[in-house]
Design brief:
There is one protein chain. With 130 residues, the chain is an alpha/beta fold. The chain contains six helices and five strands. Strands 2-1-3-4-5 form a five-stranded parallel β-sheet, sandwiched between helices. Bound molecules: manganese (II) ion (MN). The site of manganese (II) ion (MN) has 5 residues, from loops.
């Protein structure tokens, strides 16, 4: 699988760090800076995984996750929320909206890529039941 990882993130510093770490470990990356742009990219070319910020302009991450999960071509594409929210309820909410897991901000450069790999290998709820 050589599909890129799609990052949906509006903060340029976070985008830079995630892109840098993933590219350093050999992953191709495509970027979207808001939800609608990310949904369109994912629809046109299903990526290997989607990293999804929660606080985004136009559509928040919850709405984006719900939209992505309505696209059958993305059934097997893991959605990993990248969240700075400390509240357990917010994590539950993004998982309910369709994310398969989450990574906490601030991003830890030493563990970030391993976390992503684990989520990719874990697949999606849809791929587990089939
Ligand atoms: Mn944001």
């Amino acid at each position: 699988m050589n599909e890129p990882i799609l990052i949906i993130e509006d903060n340029e510093q976070n985008m830079y760090l995630m892109r840098f770490l993933l590219q350093k470990h050999g992953f191709a990356v495509v970027e979207a800076h808001d939800g609608p742009a990310g949904i369109e990219l994912a629809r046109c070319a299903p990526p290997r995984a989607i990293l999804l910020d929660i606080q985004l302009p136009l559509l928040d991450g919850y709405a984006v996750a719900e939209e992505l999960r309505r696209i059958p071509a993305l059934d097997r594409v893991p959605i990993i929320a990248v969240t700075s929210y400390a509240m357990v309820g917010d994590r539950e909410r993004i998982l309910t909206a369709g994310a398969d897991g989450y990574i906490e901000k601030p991003i830890n450069p030493d563990t970030f890529v391993d976390q992503i790999r684990r989520h990719i290998e874990g697949g999606t709820d849809a791929s587990k039941v089939r």
